[in-house]
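Why do we care about 3D structure at all? Because function follows from shape, and shape follows, mostly, from sequence. That is the central idea of this module. The next example makes it concrete: a single protein chain, its amino acid sequence, and then its structure expressed as tokens.
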Amino acid sequence: MLRNTRDPGVLLQMLLSLLSTSGTMAGIMNCVGWLGGGGTASVVIGLIAARWNLGLAIAAAAAVYCVAGALLIASMFLFVERDITAMRGQMLETAKP
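And the structure:
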């Protein structure tokens, strides 16, 4: 469930970092995403299915994805303009001779 969620600030920092370390950062983010989301999601779904039923487990996973999508869309409208402005400022500072 958590493996598809990424913090845009972390991705921006990765893109602005040195090229030699961006591969390491991407690997760490991928590892944490799979272990935190992919590893625990199957266990949680299995526990819910064993205790109640599989339909409820799938519905709960779908609800989590819907909430995550709604939060992602809300954060896009709330923070993208500020992040673009900050990134433009950083790019202008680094472009000065």
